[in-house]
Amino acid sequence: MDKNSSPIGSFIRKLFGSNRKQSASETSPQHSGPQLIPEEIHQISRRQLNDAAMKTAYHLQDEGYEGYLVGGCIRDLLMHKQPKDFDVATNATPEQAHAIFRRSRLIGRRFKLLHVRFGRDMIEVATFRASHDSHPTNTDGEHGRQNDSGMIVRDNVYGTIEEDALRRDFTVNALYYCPKDHCVYDFTNGFSDLKQRTLRMIGDPDARYREDPVRMIRAARFAAKLGFSIEPETEAPLYELGYLLKDIAPARLFDEVLKIFQSGHGVESYHQFRKYGLLEHVFSQTAHSLDNPDGAPVEKLVLNALQNTDRRIQQDKSVTPAFLFAALLWYPMQQRMNQLQKKEGMHTVPAMHEAANQVIGEQIRQTAIPRRFSTPIREIWELQFRLPRRQGKRADRLMEHPRFRAAYDLLMLRENSGEALEGLGKWWTDYQTQNPQIRSHMAREFPKDEAPKRRRRRRGPAKQQEQNNG
Description:
By secondary structure, the protein is an alpha+beta fold. The chain has helices spanning 7-16, 24-27, 39-42, 51-62, 72-78, 94-100, 161-167, 190-195, 205-211, 214-226, 232-235, 250-261, 266-276, 284-291, 298-314, 321-328, 330-344, 348-364, 371-386, 394-399, 404-416, 424-433, 436-444, 461-469, and strands at residues 35-37, 67-70, 87-90, 104-107, 113-118, 121-127, 144-146, 152-155, 175-177, 184-186, 198-199, 229-230.
């Protein structure tokens, strides 16, 4: 049968349109059915598979539904990496799956999912998705909807496993592991792309990025994380479509920023963002400071902060978004503060507080920063101006501040980046390692930096009366 007259070929034309150049994934023969990759070839050991995910898939199958491990977990296992999460895909609707799992809950509206709890493990169960225009029952847009620019704003049109594979973003993420026969099901030639270390969009990249602009961030993240090259047709729209990210909800962009810069591959992700011009649509103030550094080591600080985060993640140490945002926005805040001082004559502390309010407020409009992070950002910045004032008992009091460690780390990054701090970072490093006697001596080395406040005399009634009469 001619592939163009087959049901899959018809589906592809409906999904991506027929009046355009076909991509390599559409013209290859894998769409005639899945390529089954047996265990002896894919070599995924059953010991590597998450017990909770396997129980979820088995239970779905026992209840008469399909159940597969899918996506990034299979991709990572094929690359001999330990997956962070395991996801399951099924033909059961979220409501049907919810009915058969006792410890589960439905989440989401734009993209409805089921979370199944097994002890400490949480398995995400997604129903197979299909094209919005492949199902006539979606004429009211209740299950699937796109806005005028083509972005999907609701995505709950359900379909088959084949349709689900073609709706996924990249071929290497469209691989399904079946617990019954232990084969990997490949509908998009993803296994071959993975072996070639190539990131390829399924379908027309321009249309797929417009459907969900976050796919551009994912392309940069996967290229950085996996060390893959982006296939030319997949790469080309990245240079042009970054502006579409303005249509993404700031809360969702905040989550995506955490994934890309707190994944342990932050430095390489940053280079990808700069290469494709994506940073200016997520951190516009940081991008402006990078392009207009005014003599400050802006990029050096950004890279040092990301290197520090990558290193902590590799060492299984905790990281907080507050510190990373404080570092990325430090020079934008400094530049805003300097403008307020020059144009409005504000003193340092009030100018810093006003600059912090403006910079964080503007960043929140791009990536919603929860208050539990925005407050520590302000405190870390404020301490940068208090750390030089370390005479007397101030140094000990500063060390008791809950944000002292984060503020000290930022201070060290600033100094290591080349900012002229006159050895302040080294002083604090030495101070923390000394005994109380030496600390006291170190603190006395500095003269008082404030003149004593004048005490205002209260005028007595007689004096006040005399002045009024005079």
